[in-house]
TrEMBL record:
UniProt key word tRNA processing: no
Name by which UniProt lists this protein: Tetratricopeptide repeat protein
Any Pfam family the entry gives: TPR_8
Cleaved signal peptide residues: none
PROSITE patterns associated with the record: TPR
Naturally occurring in which organism (per UniProt): Streptomyces anandii
UniProt region (Disordered), positions on chain: 1-67
Amino acid sequence: MAPRNDDSAPAHEDDRDREGQEVREGADDAPPETADAAAAEADTVGADTTGADTAETDPAGGGSAGDERVVAVRRVAAAGRRWRAGQLATCALLLAVALTGGAVAVGAARDGAGAAAAAAPASSAVSPELLAGGSLDASIASLQAHLRAQPKDHDGWATLGLAYVEQARTKGDPSRYPQAEKALARSLRLAPGNDQALAGRAALAAARHDFADALTYADRALKQNPYSERALSSRIDALVELGRYDEASKAADTADARRPGVPVFTRYAYVRELRGDVTAAHRVLEQALSTATSRGDIAYVAAQLGQLSWNQGDYKAALRYYARALAADDSYLPALEGRARAQAASGDTAAAVKGMEFVVSRYPLPAPLVELGELYEARGAAGDEARARDQYALVDAWIALARANGVNADLDTALAAAEHGNKASALHAARAEWARRHTVHTADALAWALHVNGRDKEALPYARQATATGYRNALFLYHRGMIERATGHTGDARTHLAAALKLNPGFSPLGARQARSALEALGAAK
């Protein structure tokens, strides 16, 4: 792990020079030493946060930024068909342009990227409701204006950093992570050890899949402020993603006692779901939805309910919840993606393909790319095989981009490559991720990577571990059933393949079909 700067160090006179050099994006070499320069820094940190994103949120819109992003995605897809090992970096750079609508420069792309994490920022100088009011771009612009007038407001810088983490989550834009890091570092130099910035660092670390660091920063923030909602939430996230479920359950109880509210309720529900208590998870999420007032919170919680319903095979309920989420925020990525997945499971392939195409044209991230590729394969129309290959090539480009920016992408690699890429690479990545953290998701990924490499006896204990907590996940059950079939445990294979299809008969465009075929073959062999 790369060494970190000591956030507790006081800000001295010469630190101000370093602040300007670290925070500005593409500015001159001279550091800001005046209030005017610091104000300009607030603008530069937030460059391209608004305007370029406005047109792309409308599926029917003709905004130039959305069009440019679509063109960039298509360029990457075309490049994927002609790939050689030496071209991978170029494809990754094209994907960076696709993700950010041209906002990421080559130099800035080195600073980091990764998957998303939710944020619940607050500031004593800027109202926290500003960031939950429905327009994150406008909120960031307001924060920048505030920091031009008050460049030494450490709470304002912390809030801006958290806003960038949230923007990365909602827009699938990894360029915001380096900006978040710099804004949070500025806050900590102005007020060493302040809990807002430490909590922001926890959220940022989780977004980059550095869950050990996320836990460290959350604990540091809670020492300063035991009631920090952001830190309490990030602590739950980190413990869950480290596979420390008993501790995560206790952390959720503590957070619920100290700061009940939407961020805590949703995490409390997920911890219960991981334990197999779907009823409790649904009840808590409904409670969270009933208390949500901002459009962002409504979209977030409704999408969580949609995902929970989809996991249980209740597609009508899932579509209702996704519709509610999109009524609150029609550009909310998890709801758009979830709606397309529920449409596919319901048999509406045309709507599912159209919806997922829209998602990946704006947010070419691994999960929707794989889903779209499999939808093409399942549909089997003329040209669909090539279209599917394009999506899988884009996944490889995203992984290359993430790794080039220092992000842990091993779980993404293992999941995508096992089915649609280099099987040896999938196993290497799955083993590396398992070495870092033992969760149901990493156990399942390692089990499946071993299976596709023909090592089913090694895979079976991991497949069993993935389903040991009671977590009701049809994909995990399918993987376990297929591994049991390969190892000669035919009775167990029938049980788990049937359970997967009963729980969620449309859990995967290709996997569900293969589960049915395997179950039929097992029945015929009885």
